[in-house]
Write a structure and sequence with these properties.
five-stranded mixed sheet, disordered C terminus, Immunoglobulin-like, 312 residues, Cytochrome Bc1 Complex, Chain D, domain 2
Length: 312
């Protein structure tokens, strides 16, 4: 019988370290409080002939100890936990990007080359993977216990989750948020392969266009290029070199052009108006699926950088 859940990612080791430190601290204070309680309950039980006179002693050292020691342990635990949180919050720049869309009741996964799978995720060992999560209906929660990784997929937002698998094998995948009638059946597997086996797996089955290629097709078919490219009749901001930049907005506000900003600009174009431009862009709310949104955003993030931006 396993006492400790298998650790299959770098993040799992760090999360378990935080848990162990927390358990040790809680166990220490349990002993120093429960121990005297048990001792005094026995030593000063009824009818036991002991001196029950309460003495008055000022012990500054003891008072400082029971104040500063918990404070120091609390600050230390906070610092350790915060460091782990921030390391797990921001993925490395070279992390492999995978799109995941939650449905009632399944996970749809797409890899960078277009390879798709349902309720299954294949990964290469030792390679950081950054998942961009979306949901087509209600809140879902992507949970891989062996990776100690869990992130909600929330309607109207893109959320992210990253990890680096460290051990080959097959691990359980769950939806950890009640999402409807068949929530309990929304389960799957994460399979970690060697890098060569993963590359071979990518070439199996039907080959589909990559998210970037699908996004390029949508970019032109939806008419985006007719406004946002150089020489267009409508004056609109260039999308080249946009991703990751700081966008100046009306009233002196700014916003970083991340995935959520691109999503909002497509579905809610009047939410944040770029400074110097008119709010003339139509909304594509209800016209695109979450998968199409992810593809279009992937294309916008990879627009050719040699084209100079059309500055206002």
């Amino acid at each position: 019988m396993k006492i400790w859940l298998e650790q299959a990612s770098h993040g799992a080791v760090e999360v378990d370290q935080v848990l162990v430190v927390l358990l040790v601290i809680c166990g220490f204070f349990l002993l120093v409080t429960a121990g005297p309680i048990l001792f005094f309950s026995f030593r000063y039980r009824r009818n036991n002939p002991v001196n029950r006179v309460i003495g008055r002693k000022n012990m500054l050292s003891l008072e400082l100890a029971w104040t500063l020691l918990p404070l120091g342990l609390g600050i230390g635990l906070f610092a350790h936990s915060a460091a782990v949180y921030f390391r797990q919050r921001y993925a490395p720049a070279d992390a492999m990007e995978i799109h995941v869309v939650g449905h009632q009741w399944m996970w749809k996964v797409q890899h960078p080359n277009g390879k798709r799978e349902i309720n299954s995720l294949h990964l290469p060992v030792g390679v950081p993977a950054r998942l961009i999560l979306a949901t087509q209906d209600v809140i879902h929660s992507f949970f891989v216990p062996a990776f100690r990784a869990k992130q909600d997929a929330v309607p109207g937002y893109f959320t992210t989750l990253w990890f680096t698998p460290t051990k080959e094998g097959t691990y359980s995948l769950f939806c950890a948020e009640y999402c409807g009638t068949d929530h309990a059946r929304m389960i799957g597997t994460v399979t970690v392969l060697s890098r060569s086996d993963y590359q071979a797996w990518l070439q199996t089955g039907r080959q589909e266009e990559s998210p970037v290629a699908a996004g390029a097709r949508l970019y032109h078919s939806l008419g985006c290029s007719g406004c946002h490219e150089a020489g267009s009749s409508v004056r609109a901001p260039s999308l080249h070199r946009l991703y990751g930049s700081v966008v100046p907005l009306e009233r002196g506000k700014t916003r970083i052009a991340d995935e959520q900003y691109l999503r909002d600009s497509i579905l809610l174009p009047n939410l944040d108006i770029t400074a110097g431009y008119e709010p003339v862009m139509p909304s594509y709310q209800g016209r695109l699926t979450e998968g199409e949104l992810l593809a279009l955003v992937a294309y916008l993030k990879n627009l050719p950088r040699e084209t100079p931006p059309d500055l206002p």
